[in-house]
Structures are given as C-alpha cells and as structure tokens.
Amino acid sequence: MEKLLVIGAKGQLGKELMHCLAGEKTELGTVPLFDMPYIFEGVDIDELDITDREAVLEFIQKGAYTCLINCAAFTNVNLCESQEEAAFQANKVGPENLALAAKAIGAKLIHVSTDYVFDGEGTSPYKETDPVCPVSAYGRTKAAGEEAIEQVGGKYQIIRTAWLYGYYGRNFVKTIQQNGRDKGQLSVVSDQVGNPTNAADLAHHILKLVTSDETGIFHGTGRGLCSWYDFASKIIEFSGIRAKVLPCRTEDYPTPAKRPHYSALDHSHLDEAVGDEFRPWEEALAYFVQHQNDQIQEGI
Ligand SMILES: NC(=O)c1ccc[n+]([C@@H]2O[C@H](COP(=O)([O-])OP(=O)(O)OC[C@H]3O[C@@H](n4cnc5c(N)ncnc54)[C@H](OP(=O)(O)O)[C@@H]3O)[C@@H](O)[C@H]2O)c1
Predict the structure, then answer these.
(1) Of 28, 68, 182, 291, which sits 20 to 30 A from 155 (CA to CA)?
(2) How far is the centre of ligand 1, averaged over its atoms, from the C-alpha of 110 (Å)?
(3) Which domain, by its residues, includes 106?
(4) Domain count of the fold of the chain
(5) CA of 119 to the centre of ligand 1 (A)
(6) 116, 138, 165, 229: which one is catalytic?
(7) Is the CB of residue 36 less than 8 Å from the CB of residue 79?
C-alpha cells in the first residue's frame, strides 16, 4: 500500500494535493493511485523543517513512507536575492535531506522544481535534458536542489513547473484581480514569455507520477505560451473586471531578481511516462476564475 507524505502541505500546491488526496479525485478526473489503497499525511515547516537533517531522517524513518512529495521551498523570487543563504537551505539542503531520508528507507522522492533553472535565452521549449543556467538566486538554489537529489541517487522524480497559480495562497492571478479592481489600470511586462500553470493540473500529474516507475526530470506546465501581459489580460477579461491592461518592457518594471525572457518547457518525458493532459492555459485559467469562489465558500 502507498503511504504518502506531502511536505509543504500548507503551501499553494501542497494544499491542492492534500485536497485531491482527501477527495480521491483531481479537477481533471482520476489517476491510477485512486484505484488502490493508500494513506497520506501532510507536514509543513511548523512540524518538520526540511533544513534540519536529523529531524528529517528521524521523521521519515518513523513514518515508513513509500513516497515523499516535496512542495516545500523558499518561493519568494525577489527575496531570494537578498536572502540567498536561507533560500539555499530550503531549496538545496532541504531536498537533499529528503532524498537521503527517502533513499534510507527505499521510498521515492517527488520534488517540484522550476523553469527558472534556465536562463531564458532559448527560442524553443526547453527539454528535460537541456543544461541548466539560472540567472537568479532562486534559480541557482533550485538548480542546486535538483543536483543534490541526483547526487544522492535514490528513486526520484523531479517535476519542473512554472507560473503557478491555484485556489490557495497568494499568486499572480489573485494579485492581478486585486490590482485591477483597486487601480483600474495595470502595466504588465510583455517581453517575458512562459507557461501559466494551474496547480490543479500539476497536482493531477504529480499524483500520476506516484504510480509510475519512470524516474528522472519531467516538465509539467500549462499548455501554450504567453507573456505576463497576455496572462494578465485574460485574467482581467475572464474575471469580468473593468480595468485596462497595458504592456510594458522588463526594464520599465525593475525587480531585484532577473527573470528568463523565454521559459517554455517541453513535456516529452512526462508524456512518455504518464501522458500529458495539461489543459491549454486559457482553458485552465477560465475554469479557475469560474470556480475560485466555490472553493472559498467550501472553506478550503
Ligand atoms: N509559485 C510559482 O509560481 C512556482 C513556479 C515554479 C515552481 N514552483 C515550485 O513549486 C513548488 C510549490 O510552490 P508553491 O507556490 O506551492 O509554494 P508556497 O505556496 O510558497 O509553499 C511552500 C511551502 O513550503 C513551506 N516551507 C518553506 N520553507 C520550509 C522548510 N524549511 N521546511 C518545511 N517547509 C517549508 C512554506 O512555509 P512558509 O510559507 O511558512 O514559508 C510553504 O507552506 C515549490 O517547489 C516552488 O519552487 C513554484
């Protein structure tokens, strides 16, 4: 029987996974895991700080899990620039500890990573095998986490995602909705392109990976490419907000962290392993906007 542990269970993706595991369904339907007996638990930093090696080894050993799903990370991309050591602890040392703990008991580690491991100088979707070349502290620490897991060498699946939004916590979609309502006019960068990803789609594919023997690096993002400006325009349109969205350039909107200009991801490995059922990004966004209030009313 599968015994799963979701780490970072109070975060945006972690909560989505916990919701799916509890309900034995995902927004996209079902996955093979739901046809078999399984139990699951979730922890976050208040119960288990993944940077504490001894605590991690002891917790995982005691729990006798078959699969760890790591959604915990230092995810504030701009703050990583001034707090790179703290980010390194959470994004490199933490995953390394989990990989060691998983290997010690023969469990699998599913770890979530990012498109920001790439420099964005590409012009066609990045393949899983393309060399990483991060341009930010966040990207460096996440790339170091991937490398650490690979070096530990147990059973692992690393899934890189991008531009993630979901029902829980703060994200770009909710910020644009709020700013649109409050300000009526927004400037959004149009020269950075990527794949907006609904956390429900990502959770579906992560849960499919649980029962797959295929290991290594996978890419899991919403289908189709757009700029932050295109993304914001659709958020405003689908939400029925009366606000104007204006395009601007990266240099007009300076941020502490440099971001890749192009970060579309190719899904070949995921498709081969479990099938690529990610929705086109506009479809997943439209569904999210229609249903985000239902989730809030359910008190999730
Ligand atoms: N959000 C995106 O756009 C995006 C894009 C690409 C990839 N990703 C990756 O996707 C994954 C999930 O992201 P998310 O948006 O769900 O992140 P999130 O909402 O920030 O959740 C991360 C969770 O991890 C916890 N955490 C932080 N440090 C920890 C530690 N040392 N030990 C245990 N727990 C710790 C956080 O607690 P606190 O809140 O108390 O710190 C939080 O509950 C991450 O690996 C992230 O790098 C995200």
Answers:
(1) 28
(2) 14
(3) 2-297
(4) 1
(5) 21
(6) 138
(7) no
User: What is the β-pairing status of strands 67-70 and 38-43?
Assistant: unpaired
- Report residue 72 as tokens: 């915990």
CA-CA distance, 185 to 192, in Å (whole number)?
20
Backbone angles phi, psi at 68, to 5 degrees: -105, 135
- Which residue's CA is minimally distant from atom 15 of ligand 1? 12
Is residue 135's pLDDT more than 50? yes
Q: What CATH number is associated with residue 88?
A: 3.40.50.720
Query: Which residue do the tokens 């040392």 mark?
Result: 93
Q: What is the dihedral of CA 198, 201, 206, 209, to 10 degrees?
A: -150
Reported as a single tens digit per residue, the pLDDT across 196-251 is 999 999 999 999 999 999 999 999 999 999 999 999 999 999 999 999 999 999 99
- For 41-75, the pLDDT digits (tens) are 999 999 999 999 999 999 999 999 999 999 999 99
Please tell me the total number of residues recorded for the chain in this structure: 300
What residues contact residue 280 under an 8 Å CB cut-off, 6+ apart? 222, 223, 224
Residue 138 annotated among the catalytic residues of the structure:
yes
- For residue 189, count CB atoms less than 10 angstroms from its CB and return exposed for 0-12, middle for 13-18, buried for 19 or more: buried
Give me 163's structure tokens. Answer: 């531009």
3-state secondary structure of 26: strand
* Pick from 227, 239, 245, 267: nearest CA to 128: 267
Tell me the C-alpha distance between 145 and 111, whole Å.
Answer: 9
Please state whether 224 falls in left (phi above 0), alpha (psi between -120 and 50) or beta.
left
Of ligand 1's atoms, which has the minimum distance to the CA of residue 164?
3
